[in-house]
Design a protein that fits this description.
It contains 5 helices and 8 strands. Helix content is about 25%, strand content about 40%. The strands form 2 sheets. A 4-stranded antiparallel sheet has the order 1-2-3-4. Strands 5-6-7-8 form a 4-stranded antiparallel sheet. With about 190 residues, the protein is of the alpha+beta class. The chain has helices at about 15, 65-75, 75-85, 135-155, 170-175, and strands at about 20-25, 30-35, 40-50, 55-65, 95-100, 100-105, 110-120, 125-135. It has a single domain, classed as Transcriptional Co-activator pc4, Chain A, CATH 2.30.31. The radius of gyration is 18 Å and the shape is globular. Bound molecules: zinc ion. Zinc ion binds near residues 163, 169, 178 and 181.
């Protein structure tokens, strides 16, 4: 195990809800792996403190392991878009991480936006919601470091494969019928 004070081996249910790691990526934003209702979530979240107590704010995103794997998978595509934007190119990247969570970037902001989107029936497209967090380029750099070490804290990631790689997704129907990959039904 990576840390000697890890509580992951304990049987105590209360301790089971404790976070497995809390990695700072700058400006009070932390990457926290924490079980929630039988599911392990990886939060990228801004924390605040008051009277010596630190607490999570609403500004952030909770990714399940499948979404985390997707985010790790589009690391180089995000980096390529960053360097294109730095060269002044008009690039836009919108990556679906599953269940309407998107990583996006365009020339209007220099950073990576991680956000829950929602299906707008009128527009027949997905729209960004207020639930999410915008990461600066410095925070993105640090988050990439977390991609590497997260497997130490969350060994389950070693056996996680992208949803689209699963056997039942090998034909397009499986992909379109998956509520994770195609969360808003199939629209032509
Ligand atoms: Zn799927």
């Amino acid at each position: 195990m990576a840390s000697g004070h890890s509580s992951s081996t304990t049987q105590c249910p209360e301790q089971g809800e404790r976070s497995r790691c809390q990695l700072e990526i700058g400006q009070n934003v932390y990457v926290v792996a924490q079980p929630w209702k039988q599911e392990l979530l990886i939060h990228i979240r801004k924390f605040d403190s008051d009277k010596g107590k630190t607490f999570p704010t609403k500004q952030g995103i909770a990714l399940n392991l499948k979404q985390w794997v997707e985010l790790c998978g589009c690391k180089s595509q995000i980096d390529e878009t960053i360097s294109a934007l730095k060269q002044g190119k008009d690039e836009t990247l919108v990556k679906h991480l599953g269940a309407n969570v998107h990583a996006s970037m365009d020339k209007n902001f220099t950073g990576v936006d991680l956000r829950q989107w929602w299906w707008c029936d009128e527009m027949k497209s997905v729209k960004p919601s207020k639930k999410g967090i915008f990461l600066s380029l410095q925070q993105w750099e640090k988050l990439k470091g977390c991609f590497t070490v997260m497997c130490d804290f969350v060994p389950e990631l070693n056996s996680s494969v992208p949803c689209a790689m699963q056997d039942d997704h090998q034909n397009q129907m499986g992909f379109l019928q998956c509520s994770f990959c195609t969360p808003n039904g199939y629209h032509q």
